[in-house]
């Protein structure tokens, strides 16, 4: 059964955040809130967690996972980014954007796109997510919590707990965080390509 963590949205309890981080470090898969919608997350090198996310969401190996990063210093360890692209991304973060970029060797081999060798990265604008990332000290491998054959992600922590009780290890709930996933921008060619229009304004990339 999944452990349910009720977290204050503005002042997340440190003890609770530490407990969630411990579960992630111990190989757990968690459902947690972001600034766009709920996501599934585990450690980068957690092969079982990655396979579980694929199973829950019915994903193939061409799906771009996202590394949820605390800040630019962390993001820069895991993707190659030139000065022009850096400036464009810097102006849009933190926020509801996912950027697809070439992965560095720091990214576990099973994560990058098998042909493109790219991975998604983002810096969220969400108090609870940022608290969890600070406690972990490393990116959280993530994917939008959107179940197969459903048009919108689930928005209620209790519903996630109810439906995914036996396939996730923890549910972090800090209230409704919306149903619109991130806007996805592919910068792997050096130019901005809008892959998905979502919560982030695309005007700056058009």
From TrEMBL:
<dbReference type="InterPro" id="IPR052532">
    <property type="entry name" value="SUA5_domain"/>
</dbReference>
<keyword id="KW-0548">Nucleotidyltransferase</keyword>
<feature type="domain" description="YrdC-like">
    <location>
        <begin position="14"/>
        <end position="200"/>
    </location>
</feature>
<dbReference type="InterPro" id="IPR017945">
    <property type="entry name" value="DHBP_synth_RibB-like_a/b_dom"/>
</dbReference>
<protein>
    <submittedName>
        <fullName>L-threonylcarbamoyladenylate synthase</fullName>
        <ecNumber>2.7.7.87</ecNumber>
    </submittedName>
</protein>
<dbReference type="Pfam" id="PF01300">
    <property type="entry name" value="Sua5_yciO_yrdC"/>
</dbReference>
<dbReference type="InterPro" id="IPR006070">
    <property type="entry name" value="Sua5-like_dom"/>
</dbReference>
<dbReference type="GO" id="GO:0061710">
    <property type="term" value="F:L-threonylcarbamoyladenylate synthase"/>
</dbReference>
<keyword id="KW-0808">Transferase</keyword>
């Amino acid at each position: 059964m999944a452990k349910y963590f009720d977290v204050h949205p503005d002042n997340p309890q440190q003890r609770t955040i530490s407990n969630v981080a411990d579960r992630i470090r111990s190989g757990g898969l968690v459902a947690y809130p972001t600034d766009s919608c709920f996501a599934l997350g585990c450690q980068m090198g957690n092969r079982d967690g990655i396979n579980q996310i694929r199973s829950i969401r019915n994903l193939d190996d061409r799906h771009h996972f996202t590394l949820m990063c605390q800040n630019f210093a962390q993001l820069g360890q895991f993707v190659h980014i030139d000065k022009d692209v850096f400036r464009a991304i810097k102006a849009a973060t933190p926020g509801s954007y996912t950027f697809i970029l070439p992965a560095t060797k720091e990214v576990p081999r099973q994560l990058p796109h098998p042909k493109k060798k790219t991975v998604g990265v983002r810096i969220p604008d969400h108090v609870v997510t940022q608290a969890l990332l600070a406690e972990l000290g490393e990116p959280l491998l993530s994917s939008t919590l959107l179940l197969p054959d459903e048009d919108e992600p689930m928005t209620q922590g209790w519903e996630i707990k109810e439906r995914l009780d036996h396939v996730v290890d923890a549910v972090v709930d800090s209230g409704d965080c919306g149903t619109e996933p991130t806007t996805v921008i592919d910068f792997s060619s050096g130019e901005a390509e809008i892959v998905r229009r979502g919560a982030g304004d695309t005007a700056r990339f058009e």
